Amino acid sequence: MSDNAKSFEIQKRRGLIVWVYSLKQLKNLRRYGFVHYVSNQMKYVVLYVNEEDIEKSIEKLKRLHFVRNVDISHYPDIDMDFGDKIGTQAAFQVTESIGDHSAE
Fold first, then answer.
1. Domain covering 13-83 in this structure, CATH number
2. pLDDT tens for residues 75-91?
3. What is the four-CA torsion angle of 12, 17, 20, 23, rounded to 10 degrees?
């Protein structure tokens, strides 16, 4: 590859849970971010927004008349390294089967 080729940079994104009164205005929500999931029964939309635009997007979404509430996803804030919490020996423990007849 040449040095002047554009490099792909991953955008930091955050999920927003947008609670709505009605899903009739779903097309209007598409202009604020990427619609990932729509729950017809519980009337919420999971919307992905760029991390740097999140505050402006929340303010704009809360001003809409059909939006009940906006919640921020806390998934990126969760520490997913569980090795220290359960111990590395317990995490990689291997048990031998009792009925192993491979030596016969």
1. 3.30.70.80
2. 888 887 776 666 665 55
3. 70
